[in-house]
Amino acid sequence: MEIKTTEFKRCTVIKTSGRIDGSNAQELAQALKAITSKGVYKIVFDMSEVNFVASAGWWVLIDTQKTCKPSGELVLVKVDKGIKDSLNLVGMGSYFRTYDDVTSAVGDF
Amino acid sequence: MSTKRFTCSLKNLEEICDYVTHCANAAGLDESEVYAVQLAVDEASTNIMEHGYGRECPNRIDITCEILDDGLKVVIYDDADPFDPELVPDPEINVSLDDVKPRGLGIFFMRKMMDEVQYEATPEKGNTLTMIKRHAR
Fold first, then answer.
1. Which end of chain B is more exposed for a tag (fewer CB within 10 A), N or C?
2. Which pLDDT value is given to residue B52?
3. Which domain holds residue A40?
4. Which helix (H) or strand (E) covers residue A6, if one does?
5. Contact (CB<8Å) B10/A21
6. Which residues pair with A76 in a beta bridge?
7. Percent of chain B scored above 90 by pLDDT?
8. pLDDT tens digits, one per residue of B66-112
9. Share of chain A above pLDDT 70, in %
């Protein structure tokens, strides 16, 4: 799993592609932990190239959100419709704010 | 009807997904219905690999796709210890972020995304998980 992180003045953007499932969710967890362990709690997750998120992936994102709040927040960008619908279906869509593009998400921090 | 056999490795989840995606497209499911099948089968397979088989890898995970008049039937056979997903309670939903607990989400996805989820364990056949996704139209 290739994970790219870009540090901005007010937040960090993280991006990966493809699937987030039981085989690789821990890699994402480590990458996010590397960010929060530096005291950065404002994180933008660019999901424009992510096409699948299983429950293992959601728990990583939910755990990260718990770590980030209340001093910061993990927000999601360009979430595929199927992915977003699945999270809404289980009543967890409200845990994440979503944006249509990275610029708006970064600008909002 | 087609059947494909997979070994017990989380690395195979993508291949499993590709297989059921092919089936779901052949059954004429739309994009969101295909995603539902992908997610439900991924969660079921992950559960079999992580919970059903514990640390010992299995002899088989066989996945059969059957195209129905009104959708797709996916049957997953495995020979692990019996594990009935129907006995796993739903996670608490619509609770605050602080109160959400990491359990039961995968099975909850299966129930929510599919129209039918049925589990059966017999000494002859092992575990059989049958899931059906119907066309919305």
1. C
2. 62
3. 4-108
4. strand A4-7
5. yes
6. A45, A98
7. 58
8. 999 999 999 999 988 777 777 888 888 778 888 888 778 888 999 99
9. 100
CB-CB under 8 Å, A86 with B36: yes
Interface predicted TM-score (ipTM) of this complex, two decimals: 0.92
pTM above 0.90, yes or no: yes
Closest chain A residue by Cα to residue B40:
A54
Find the residue in A nearest to B35 (Cα). Answer: A82
Which residue among B50, B97, B108 places its CB closest to the CB of A22? Answer: B50
* CATH code, domain carrying B44: 3.30.565.10
B102: chain A residues, CB-CB within 8 Å: 59, 62-63
Residue B30 C-alpha, separation from nearest chain A C-alpha, in angstroms: 11
Domain count, chain B: 1
DSSP states along A61-101: HHHHHHHHTTT-EEEEES--HHHHHHHHHTT-GGG--EESS
Mean per-residue pLDDT of chain A: 96
Number of domains in chain A: 1
Q: Tell me the CATH number at A12.
A: 3.30.750.24
